[in-house]
Amino acid sequence: MIQSILPEQWQDRLSIPVVMAPMFLVSGPEMVIAGCKKGVVGTFPALNQRTSEGFEQWLIQITEALTTFEQETGKKAAPFGVNLITHPSNPRMEADLALCIKYKVPLIITALGAMRSVTDQVHQYGGVVFHDAINIRHARKAADANVDGIIAVSAGAGGHAGAINPFALIEEIRGFWTKTLLLGGCINRGHQIHAAQVMGADLAYVGTRFINTLESRAPEGHKTMILESTADDVVHTPAVTGVPSNFMKQSLLNSGYDMKALLDQGHIDFGKKLTPSGSDSSKAWQDVWSAGHGVSGIKNIVSCEQLIEQLVLEYKNSNCR
Fold it and tell me: Tens digits of per-residue pLDDT, 249-281?
């Protein structure tokens, strides 16, 4: 059995070394609670709630549900986490961070800007900070910000993904990083989680596979498109959100995107992107569906409980080979 480098607060709380990646407009309290109860770190983006007031209600819902679970079962739930976009264009960053501090959210996942000030505030209440990194430059910035874990988002991951092979990305980061390291990109099965650890990661960062669960907030069309897609149906482009990301080609076509223009650099502005549904800018978030190359291995829609039990069994079997 491979020994993972995990935050001290997480010891004996995971059934499998997996963090459920936060997915925009897909992850919600239902999926987070279901994952944490089964020993997987459940996370969601703060911006999945359209206001900070709504975000606070989700924090209350998750905290109360997991507290009740532990009281009734005598078992420890896995920690839960919140993804904060720390880019200057996010107008809610400070307000949402204040709520995370208020409710002592166990894990904060920062993206689009590693900030020492955020890390320090989370550490003050005993929380943990992980940061997304698609290359060695981002990883070193995260290390300078004193984060507790670096998420190596490799080629083929869903959402804001990198373009570097996972073998190379893990090798480069491990050259200087001795704390918790996560690997994201095309991880659907238990033996792939084991493989990530063999490569040098401590935890697998699994996103796309959880889109096709009953607790996912993705529309049925999104889930069906995943069932029908292969890796060739995923397009890596900065044109939608301003950051290079992976999206399903058919959803881009359905939304009227010019396929020839998809390599044009977009503009990052989360204030504009958070305008009410119905405006043109909301199309980037609601009509275009993200997924990674892992769509190739997804053939069904199951509950989080069923999926995690399958992952645990596959993981244990792969460790016995």
Answer: 999 999 888 877 676 655 555 555 544 444 444
Helix or strand holding residue 319 (H, E): helix 304-319
- pLDDT score, position 176: 97
Residues paired with residue 180 on neighbouring β-strands, in sequence order: 149
Which DSSP letter does residue 8 get?
A: G
The DSSP call for residue 241 is T
Ordered by where they begin, the domains of the chain are 8-216+302-319 (3.20.20.70), 220-293 (no CATH)
CA-closest candidate to residue 106, choices 48, 186, 32, 23: 32
Q: Give a three-class secondary structure readout of 176-228.
A: CCCCEEEEECCCCCHHHHHHHHHHCCCEEEECHHHHCECCCCCCHHHHHHHHH
- Residue 159, CA atoms < 13 Å, CB-side half-sphere: 23
Q: Residues, the chain, total?
A: 321
Within 8 A by CB and 6+ apart from 314, the residues are 189, 190, 191, 193
Q: What are the tens digits of pLDDT across the range 123-141?
A: 999 999 999 999 999 999 9
Report how far residue 210's alpha carbon sits from residue 191's, in angstroms, rounded to the nearest whole number. 17
Q: Is this structure's pTM higher than 0.85?
A: yes
CA distances from 188 to 20, 151, 278 (A): 11, 17, 34
Kind of pairing, strands 149-153 and 18-20?
unpaired
Separation between Cα atoms, residue 194 and residue 162, nearest integer Å: 22
- Residue 41 phi, psi (nearest 5): -70, 115
- Residue 204's DSSP bridge partners are 18, 183
The first and second tokens of residue 314, run together, are: 């596959």
Tens digit of pLDDT for each residue in 205-216? 999 999 999 999
Number of alpha carbons in the 13 Å side-chain half-sphere of residue 235 = 21
78 to 60, 163, 173: CA distances (angstroms): 16, 31, 26
Q: How far apart are the C-alpha atoms of 121 and 126, rounded to whole Å?
A: 9
Mapping DSSP to helix (H, G, I), strand (E, B) and coil, where does residue 127 land? Answer: coil
- Tokens standing for 12? 């004996």
